[in-house]
Design a protein that fits this description.
It is built from 7 helices and 14 strands. The chain is α/β, with parallel strands linked by helices. Helix 5 crosses helix 7. The protein starts with a strand and ends with a helix.
Length: 278
């Protein structure tokens, strides 16, 4: 397929190179000509016209996402990097959103443990993503939150925002999931060193995951513990994400977040921002 990649920063270029490695014809565009020529050096081409593209990956700054969705006159399927946008949008042509934590080996294992009822009736959860940051300009909820809110709803089901406090750099969010579970989400741009983990508590034990070190374990109250060491890497997860995008374009059901799921997470993000500013 001929796939366009709009935005050739670190994430856009990573997607472009992975698509090339998967045998796709990649055409890219960026406001920086040097990045376009870097793509050519990697085996891609510079976009001359959007006509003829079979699909596109949108990795431009998030405030421009809605523009690309609105003016997708060809109706081509798109993968939108997270967040889906900064305002509610039409997601009819968005076949995937770039919430790549779903491809993380420990997340897959946690999902399986939950499906197999390893910790009994679920009670509560805690998700943390904290890292000192001077690079990102997005509100921490739109940036980190787009991943962690997707992770919480992917593992625990649909939710609404109960409360949110903080600033554009530090945020505390509480979700009420439809199944009765409450989850707390901590996000910040100020903590050193980097922390990325979650814990889900049930009547019979807890599922604990360190996403950075790719270690997961079930801590049970009266039964043996179980541990999992992921052998995958972030590179593996990004490659699997692009393969899933190709499969989704071809009509197959894949692991990636759908446009509808991305929109629900965006609504949670926007509501959390509203509450934190009120």
């Amino acid at each position: 397929m001929k796939i366009g990649v709009f935005g050739l920063g670190s994430i856009g270029m990573r997607h472009a190179k992975n698509l090339i490695a998967l045998g796709q014809e990649v055409h890219g565009r960026d406001t920086d000509p040097d990045k376009e020529w870097d793509l050519v050096a990697a085996g891609g081409k510079i976009i001359e016209t959007a006509g003829g593209l079979h699909a596109s990956v949108i990795a431009v700054p998030s405030e421009h996402h809605a523009h690309y969705i609105k003016y997708n006159n060809t109706g081509m399927p798109m993968l939108m990097e997270k967040p889906l946008a900064t305002e509610p949008v039409d997601i009819s042509n968005v076949v995937m959103v770039g919430n790549n934590l779903r491809f993380h080996g420990c997340v897959k294992q946690a999902k399986q443990w939950l499906a197999e009822d390893h910790i009994g009736k679920l009670r509560s959860a805690q998700f943390t993503l904290a890292q000192k940051n001077t690079k990102y300009k997005d509100h921490v909820i739109l940036n980190w939150g787009s991943h962690e809110l997707d992770l919480a709803t992917y593992l625990l089901g649909d939710a609404s925002v109960v409360s949110a406090t903080g600033t554009d750099r530090v945020s505390f969010i509480q979700l009420q999931h439809r199944n009765g579970v409450r989850s707390n989400i901590h996000l910040d741009y100020v903590t050193e060193p980097h922390v990325r983990c979650f814990q889900i508590l049930g009547d019979e034990g807890a599922i604990c995951v360190n996403l950075e070190h790719r270690i997961a374990w079930v801590s049970r109250y009266f039964r043996r513990h179980e541990e999992f060491q992921g052998q995958d890497t972030w590179d593996d997860n990004y490659k699997e994400e692009m393969q899933a995008f190709i499969d989704r374009i071809n009509g197959k059901k894949t692991l990636g977040a759908t446009g509808a799921e991305g929109l629900e997470v965006l609504k949670l993000c926007l509501e959390a921002i509203r509450l934190s500013q009120s």
